[in-house]
Amino acid sequence: MFQAHLTPFYGLTASENKLHIFLLVQNVFDETLEGKASITGRVQLVSTADPTVVKTLTLGPANILTARGYHPGTGMLTFNARDTIILGASWDLSQRPLLDDAGKDLTTGLLHLGTDPTCPMDRTISDPQNFTVEGFVQLFDRTGPVVVPTVVFRFCLISNWVNPKYCPYVTAPCNEILSRGD
Fold first, then answer.
1. Residues facing residue 63 across a β-bridge
2. Is the dihedral of CA 161, 166, 170, 171 positive or negative?
3. Whole-angstrom Cα distance, residue 20 to residue 9?
4. Which of 82, 116, 145, 176 could potentially form a cystine with 136 if both were Cys, beta carbons 3.0 to 4.6 Å apart?
5. What angle do CA 55, 59, 60 make, to 5 degrees?
């Protein structure tokens, strides 16, 4: 009935330092589904190096980025065949302490910030860390949850944005999708 996938994206600009997770759901059913929306779900990031490090982001109607047939005033959703809904959740990586679900400060452990060899005077960076990203979303009460295939995402925590004319952008091996479960 539904196909779904996750896309993590690290957004580091002059105004943000966030890990965005986009969840795309497509109606592959040959018919339109319509009714009161029950949009709930979650996205979890789990460290592959230390599975006790978990960060959970909840999903609800406020996380809808695009849904052509969703009416926020009434909560009604018309989900036509082949249409897609995109939800987004973000983890603000500029917060200090940077806490996981258990209250551990990740900048003193797994995502410890050290000297960035490409920009030693202006920013710090963590070693690359792999996270499994998994999630689900429930769109209607009468349909089951849409479980999204997992993604393994490698990212480096970066302390702050620096104008690229002074320091290069941070690229591979940081901030890349390593594998998809679909």
1. none
2. positive
3. 5
4. 145
5. 155
Per-residue pLDDT of the chain (182 residues), as tens digits, is 999 999 999 999 999 999 999 999 999 999 999 999 999 999 999 999 999 999 999 999 999 999 999 999 999 999 999 999 999 999 999 999 999 999 999 999 999 999 999 998 889 999 999 999 999 999 999 999 999 999 999 999 999 999 999 999 887 688 899 999 86
42-46, long-range: CB < 8 A, 24+ apart: 42/135, 42/136, 43/6, 43/89, 43/133, 43/134, 43/135, 44/133, 44/134, 44/135, 45/19, 45/21, 45/91, 45/131, 45/132, 45/133, 45/153, 46/131, 46/132, 46/134
Enter the tokens of residue 36.
Answer: 């009161």
